[in-house]
Amino acid sequence: MFFKQVQQHGDNFSYVIADKDSREAAVVDSSFNAGKIMQILKENNLVLKYVINTHGHSDHIAGNPELRSILKAQILGYNYSRARFDIGVDDGDIIHVGKVLIKVIYTPGHTKDSISLLVGQKKLLTGDTLFVGECGRTDLPGGSSEEMYDSLNKIMKLHDTVQVFPGHDYGNARFSTIGAQKHSNYTLKPRSLEEFIQFMNEP
Ligand SMILES: [Zn+2]
């Protein structure tokens, strides 16, 4: 599998995932710099099939129209997302990129349309749900601390060795693991739902 974390404008991350045999590729969160993504695809002789949105915030999808019109990629987004997409996905769906399998895990809380993506059982792309040492904010439109609580619990059930690749470079490292986050991320400390909501409401 080809897997590349791309530092974008500011602290956004894009990801390029591809099957080395078929050369089929997917981009997760095009962010602002479609040109940089096209360069990586070209350098590695990859054919873009899908652009997958972790959620519809503009800092994650700004490059989509360019990738769609120039490379004819199809945009994948959560079924009920208000952001533009060509193919809707839902919890448990499997996206095929050549032989690489990407499982959709619905993780609302930061937004109603937030998904996390489990790539080849080993790498979890968490968008703005979980960062290294932080979780996503829930005070924007469509945000919900209650849903964030369930979503974090859901992804913490994955194996400790699964690597966490966030949507922003907010932490002391560019990626981590579920096990390491369980121990070091203060937002994941054991809390009841009430305690978590109170915690998220603290300034
Ligand atoms: Zn966001």
Number of helices: 6
Mind describing the biggest β-sheet?
6 strands, mixed
Approximate shape: globular
Q: How are strands sequenced across the largest beta sheet? A: 1-2-3-4-5-6
The percentage of residues in β strands lies in: 25-35%
Structural class: alpha/beta
What is the count of β-strands?
14
Bound molecule kinds, no repeats: zinc ion
| Mean residue pLDDT | 97
CATH homology-level superfamily:
Ribonuclease Z/Hydroxyacylglutathione hydrolase-like
CATH domain fold name:
Metallo-beta-lactamase, Chain A
Instruction: Output the CATH class name.
Output: Alpha Beta
Order of helices and strands: EEEHEHHEEEEEEEEHEEHH
How many domains, in number, for the residues? 1
Considering DSSP H and I runs of 4 or more, what fraction of the residues is helical? 10-25%
Gross CATH architecture: 4-Layer Sandwich
Radius of gyration: 16 Å
Describe the protein's architecture and organization:
The mean pLDDT is 97. The chain has six helices and 14 strands. The protein is globular. Strand 9 (115-119) and strand 10 form a beta hairpin. It is an alpha/beta fold. The protein has one domain (2-201): Ribonuclease Z/Hydroxyacylglutathione hydrolase-like (Metallo-beta-lactamase, Chain A). The strands form three sheets. Strands 1-2-3-4-5-6 form a six-stranded mixed beta sheet, covered by helices on one side. It has a six-stranded mixed beta sheet with strand order 7-8-9-10-13-14. A two-stranded antiparallel ribbon has the order 11-12. Bound molecules: zinc ion (ZN). Zinc ion binds next to loops.
